[in-house]
From TrEMBL:
Any one GO molecular function term: catalytic activity
Name this polypeptide is given: Amidase domain-containing protein
Domain Amidase: 98-555
Annotated InterPro entries: Amidase, Amidase_dom, AS_sf
A Pfam family: Amidase
Amino acid sequence: MSVAFLADKAQSKITKEDLQDIAAKLNISIPDGPDADAYLLLLQSTEALMRQVEASADYIHPSLSPLPTTKPRVFWLPKPEENPLNAWRHCCELVAAQPSSSLLRGRTIVIKDNISVGGLPTTLGTFTDILCNDGNLPLSPIDASVVSRVLDAGATIKGSSTCENFCASPLSYSAATGPVHSPWMHGCTSGGSSSGSAALVSANIVQRLTGQTFGPTVELAIGGDQAGSVRMPAAYTGIYGLKPTFGLVPYTGAVGLVPMIDHLGPIAENLDDIALLLQVMAGYDGIDPRMTPESPLRNQVPNYSKQLYEFKSRSLTAGERVGSSFRVGLLLESFDIPGLSAEVRDTVLQAAKSFFAKAGATVSEVSVPMHREGIIIWTAATRMSTSDFACQGKPGGALSFLPPHIRVQWPPDQHMYELLTATNPSLVNIMFTGPFLNQHFGPVSEAKAHRKVFELRAAYDRALEEFDVLVTPCNPTVSMPHPKMKPDDQGPASSIMDKLHVAVGVTTNTAPFNATGHPAMSIPCGFGQGPGSPEAKLPIGMQVIAKRWEEFTILKAAAIFEEGRHLAETVCTERQ
């Protein structure tokens, strides 16, 4: 590798002691002499060029410049009485001055708080003093690609939604601003890490059913998903959440965990809105290295809304039903995971068998033994690098455009440790396991885990040759109470293990598909009993998986399932 230039040694504070210290950490000893002098000069030269880059003006990609809006981009904190679920982080009212389409005209949407919205802070669900030294959160100078796209389609962005601390929790108790509550039962999880996004959409359903009000809500939301963080909140709150095929929706402008598993996806109350929002979000942006040659150009993105409408409204021949010839595979291993409750298992099984069959689809069992290893492979392939990307903000090996206003404190200190231990000890675990795994296993083991991901992908692909979709439970239980986050007169806060125990195994059925890149969606399929309150009903979600790049197959599956449920409910009504 060539050297750009040789520095003026007199301008550098790098010394031979610094060189010796670096060498010692690599188990190398360099004697004083010409070799040490040469390597010292090279270090000083590298320092000089990096300082030159640091001193230069930053660059904002033109595609990410904030879209002109009808009013100045201002934001405000929600009033407590307007935010009973703690689901709002910042509020705004952004409408594009000259949208290029009306696909989302008049529709309200909220953006997860790890996604850059020009003129708003991006807090990642964490503490202000971890993100800045002066208490003034920097404002985003960019619109993430998906933000520009929803604005350009006429949507009204109402604000940013609370997300979990560094997006590193599948439940909703870890945000610096406090737990996000399920609208179905206050004090219980709405799922994470897209916790606020799901709560603000599902609150509309609960409000219609009960008359209870939750302050301002939205029709649509965008969430992020690395292990299930779109699907799990959707399942816990009784709505739809889709994790698209890896590379279909650009991640540009969002803060991720590990590039290999980063996804953005739509959250909505109904299937038609999922199709519409996916259509707006999808397509190559020319910036995100996660996108592949298979990623469609913007003008080649399928018209998911039209396809779904035509599928549901098509004329059927005599004896044909909407699901005729559609093949559904019940993934056996997913119904036998540790921690899966009987009510979730039975609800998903019975709903899938009954409603798909009622609509004419065939439902059979299929075994994918490697699914049992899926969560292990996901962990081994990502955990060594998560601290680098999520906590330290390192770019990946491929050219990428990270949000320029995000500068997370690193290395951590005792104060940061104490803040995170009290709110999200899983993040502290990530900080510890990264160096540990690098020291004891190293990149060779991580590379092997990546090869195992290809093996896991192939195992699912073989099953999907036989079936159009695979079905699993999404979350292993219904929503559960939050851990106790603060001490009070009744006793101390929950311990580290108490906080972590409730999350163990939650992503077993969802995380594998982040690694393999298959599209997967949670579909509401029934209800279970609320904790300590048998008369209360909490939603249960069914996960549907298809071949990569076959999002429309998932939309078809959901439409078939909905039709089967409608037919079953009609029969029940007639019998009554």
